[in-house]
Amino acid sequence: MNRTRLRNLGITIGEYPTGTHNAITDVPDVVVGQTTLIYDEPRIARTGVTIIIPRAGKIWQDHCFAGVHRFNGNGEMTGTAWIEESGLLTTPIGITNTHQVGLVRDVLVEYGRTQPGAHHWLLPVVAETYDGFLNDIDAFPLQRAHVLAAIENARGGRVDEGNVGGGTGMRCHGFKGGIGTSSRVVFSAGASYTVGVLVQANYGRMKLLTVNGVPVGKHFAATRQAPDPRGSIIIIVATDAPLLPTQCKRLAQRATVGLANVGGHGDNSSGDLFLAFATGNHVPNNATQPIPLRMLPQEEMNALFDATVEAVQESILNALCAAETTRGARGIVHAMPLDELVELMRKYNRLDAEPAEPSDYAERRSAFDI
Fold it and tell me: Which residue in 182, 183, 270, 315 is the catalytic one?
């Protein structure tokens, strides 16, 4: 069966409708760029970088309110001390492998210093998960030019998933993981808002994998030897709702529920780090006068909480469905078998009558032949 997105298999998570692309880019002016590195000489590379840019690049001058949540702290996300202190996201967000966080952070600083109106000191947000099984991580394959390319190629619309960008070498629930995304549209306090999620999924035990309430991991693990489950997940939540920093933090916390519903328990070795940002208010850099703000009433947050839970689940599952079997530095990681997944969901009567969206992966050629 061709690699595809979850909904193309006839599996729908939750009740809220998705945005146009079912991606974090459905939040207006949120763009994503990725650089993917796959080669075998002089040393094996299965890695890359994913860049999320709010306000279509104007984040340097027009900051967003943001909040962070640490479910388990065996990982790194730079810049979060200032977010906790100020409630502000002032740079794009980078996601890469564990040993190259510093490089991505430095390039974002370098790039930011060229942006008119940017602050004179910069504390970029860069997060990581460990890809050292498939990627020769100590070869440090990611270079300055690769990060700059991801920034420059950032676009709206469809986002590539699976073995791409920072997710190129990642594993999830014993299968090939990586980048996944999803979105939801909600109506709250008299207006429509979009919640978008992007994950770098590299965590989890096979036997715990759950899809829409179905314990598919138990079935998979019964016939497979599950690999070492150590790993992490980065979850980025974006919305155009007018939220204050404390509300963004509350939204980031709800990512934990979505992760748990898929089978993430926050293992000791896992860096489960979540960030939520909201573009519904504008905070100009170097403002000298009081800034007018809007705030969604707390009682109206429930729809956004539900949307976050749904979109996190679907993002993780999209990563698993899109990712392809990959041979790397220390062995092979197999893709989750979609045909078996469909049969299990049919057995539990959890398939839709029709797929929810057309397939856009049917003609995708595999770059990960074993």
Answer: 270
Please name every residue paired with 39 in a beta bridge, in sequence order, or none if there are none: 45
pLDDT tens-digit readout, 321-338: 999 999 999 999 999 999
DSSP element (H, E) containing 64: strand 62-73
User: What does the pLDDT average to over 304-328?
Assistant: 98
Active site residue 232: yes
Does the annotation count 183 as an active-site position?
A: no
Burial class (CB in 10 A: 0-12, 13-18, 19+), 370: exposed
pLDDT above 80 for 52 = yes
Phi, psi dihedral angles at 87 (to 5 degrees) = 75, 15
Does the global pTM surpass 0.90? yes
CB 104 within 8 Å of CB 96: yes
**pLDDT score for 229:** 67
The Cα 113–Cα 83 span in angstroms is 20
All structural domains of the chain with their residue ranges: 6-286+294-345
Q: Phi and psi for 193 in degrees, rounded to 5?
A: -135, 155
CB 72 within 8 A of CB 267: yes
| Active-site annotation holds for 26 | no
Distances (CA, A) of 19 to 27, 188, 212: 8, 16, 20
Q: Name the one residue in this structure whose structure tokens are 């492998």.
A: 97
pLDDT in tens, 332-365: 999 999 999 999 999 999 999 766 665 444 443 3
Domain covering 6-286+294-345 assigned CATH 3.60.70.12 in the classification: yes
From the candidates 26, 131, 272, 306, which is the catalytic residue?
Answer: 272
* Catalytic member of 131, 160, 182, 232: 232
- Which helix (H) or strand (E) is 129 found in, with range? strand 125-129
Residue 8 is encoded by which pair of tokens? 């193309």
SS (H, E, C) 138-174: HHCCCCHHHHHHHHHCCECCCCCCECCHHHCCCEECC
